[in-house]
Amino acid sequence: xxxxxxxxxxxxxxxxxxxxxxxxxxxxxxxxxxxxxxxxxxxxxxxxxxxxxxxxxxxxxxxxxxxxxxxxxxxxxxxxxxxxxxxxxxxxxxxxxxxxxxxxxxxxxxxxxxxxxxxxxxxxxxxxxxxxxxxxxxxxxxxxxxxxxxxxxx
Length: 154
Prior knowledge:
The protein is of the alpha/beta class. The protein has helices spanning 8-17, 48-51, 78-95, 121-139, and strands spanning 19-23, 26-34, 64-70, 106-113, 147-149. It contains four helices and five strands; from the N terminus they run H-E-E-H-E-H-E-H-E. Strands 1, 2, 3, 4 and 5 form a five-stranded mixed beta sheet that branches. The radius of gyration is 16 Å and the shape is globular. The two termini are 22 Å apart.
């Protein structure tokens, strides 16, 4: 739950200024940003004490927050939307280690399920793995070209 993106201002900012990729059955919008000292906090930061003893030597990295959305227009039943979101979250959880995100900036990712068919788990997992590979390629060298300053209108 800590990795879910819930701030409406950040969600609007992602869809307004984010980088878009497609990998069936997902449309992925991602935005990397830094927080300045004067910027208001949109999500909580985890201190070294909160991360636990086993992580004391691991350098702190930016947070990754995700949003998974399934269109109500394409999938009328909430049961089907929840099934697709559960499958997508599990596929993300199993493939997040491929992202290898170690930058200091925070990364917000929105996955929008675009297929009008209810895909099986294997299709969703393959699509999620491709999405994460694209994100890893985009953000792996800690490019500052994709960084947005948090003092801008959030």
